[in-house]
């Protein structure tokens, strides 16, 4: 799951949703707050496939084992952030939230979160260090790595590096990229800036490389790039492993590689609210998500890489996923606090460059 919004849009949406959240709270109609007051654990989830998995697979064994009554709040990180900002850090409607670091890093800086207590989340001891962020305030429980997907029938020399998108003549005029409004597009630019420049925010270096690829088709979501790749309109693109596996299941001649400089990722990070109304239940739920059993089920459903280092995947699943928790060091992390400060300017520059 990724955000196809720029930072200005996120802030505008947050403001609008925050107003609605405040109105709801004042009238007693804000369902997450009502649920929390009743002792229920509010479970944040995206819609569609995520919500079905949460309700049918993830929650039933948790509720049965703990006796906790869970209420699912379907939305996006921007919705949950708006609700939190409307209530303030001391009176949150949630005990924890699940969101991308794009949003979570900002809320962490604003003082909403605290460290997960290790004694209440035993499975934390098994989590790869790469999946622990913000001094233990966040735990990335779900990882979808992003590398290079390419057409095996159109490429004789498989890529090994991000630089091959420029250096391999077979890719000339056959590269597709995420739009900058998608977090994957911004992360790709930061990765390239880091490779060709002094650091991930050296955007002059990054844009110098992007200009060499222009013109190129773009996709707002992974599925859009997958269509271009399936049709053979492009030969390679940055893409998450899960989307690549979906294409392979449909018979498309595509493969996925982890570039030698590293991958980046779509993340789902769990953050504990500083004034959580039901901290014990939130900790029990994170422990449940991090269990070997649930990590396998998440891998089966979403092609997520386990973060629990004790997780053993079924043989066929392990073969298709390619990576284990011990491969998380291959994923490059970015400073979202600093990246968010300049995202509007970078977006405007991108739009001028690729139009």
From TrEMBL:
Annotated keywords: Periplasm, Signal
GO cellular component, one term: outer membrane-bounded periplasmic space
Entry superkingdom: Bacteria
MF terms (GO), sorted A to Z: thiamine binding; thiamine pyrophosphate binding
Residues making up the signal peptide according to the UniProt record: 1-24
Biological-process GO terms, alphabetical: thiamine transport
Keyword Manganese: no
Family matches, as PANTHER family: ABC TRANSPORTER SUBSTRATE-BINDING PROTEIN, THIAMINE-BINDING PERIPLASMIC PROTEIN-RELATED
Protein name (record): Putative spermidine/putrescine transport system substrate-binding protein
Organism: Mesorhizobium australicum
Organism lineage: Bacteria, Pseudomonadati, Pseudomonadota, Alphaproteobacteria, Hyphomicrobiales
């Amino acid at each position: 799951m990724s955000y196809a919004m720029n930072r200005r849009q996120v802030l505008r949406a947050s403001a609008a949703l925050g107003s609605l959240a405040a109105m709801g709270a004042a009238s007693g109609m804000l369902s997450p707050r009502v649920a929390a007051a009743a002792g229920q654990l509010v479970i944040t989830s995206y819609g569609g496939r995520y919500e079905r998995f949460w309700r049918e697979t993830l929650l039933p064994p948790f509720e049965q084992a703990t006796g906790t009554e869970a209420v699912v709040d379907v939305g996006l990180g921007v919705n949950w952030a708006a609700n939190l900002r409307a209530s303030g850090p001391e009176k949150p409607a949630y005990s924890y939230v699940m969101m991308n670091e794009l949003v979570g890093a900002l809320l962490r800086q604003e003082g909403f979160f605290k460290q997960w207590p290790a004694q209440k989340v035993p499975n934390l001891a098994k989590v790869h260090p790469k999946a622990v962020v913000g001094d233990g305030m966040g735990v990335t429980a779900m990882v979808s790595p992003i590398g290079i997907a390419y057409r095996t029938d159109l490429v004789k020399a498989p890529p090994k590096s991000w630089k091959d998108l420029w250096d391999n003549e077979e890719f000339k005029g056959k590269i597709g990229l995420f739009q900058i409004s998608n977090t994957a597009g911004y992360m790709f630019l930061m990765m390239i800036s880091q490779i060709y420049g002094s650091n991930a925010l050296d955007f002059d270096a990054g844009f110098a490389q992007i200009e060499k690829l222009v013109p190129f088709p773009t996709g707002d979501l992974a599925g859009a790039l997958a269509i271009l790749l399936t049709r053979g309109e492009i030969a390679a693109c940055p893409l998450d492993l899960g989307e690549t596996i979906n294409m392979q299941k449909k018979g498309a001649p595509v493969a996925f590689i982890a570039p030698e400089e590293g991958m980046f990722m779509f993340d789902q990070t769990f953050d504990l609210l500083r004034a959580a109304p039901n901290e014990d239940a939130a900790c029990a739920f994170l422990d449940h998500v991090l269990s070997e059993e649930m990590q396998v089920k998440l891998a089966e459903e979403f092609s997520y890489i386990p973060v629990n280092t004790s997780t053993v995947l079924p043989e066929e699943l392990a073969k298709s996923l390619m990576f284990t928790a011990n491969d998380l060091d291959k994923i490059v992390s970015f400073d979202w606090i600093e990246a968010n400060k300049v995202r509007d300017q970078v977006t405007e520059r991108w739009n001028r460059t690729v139009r």
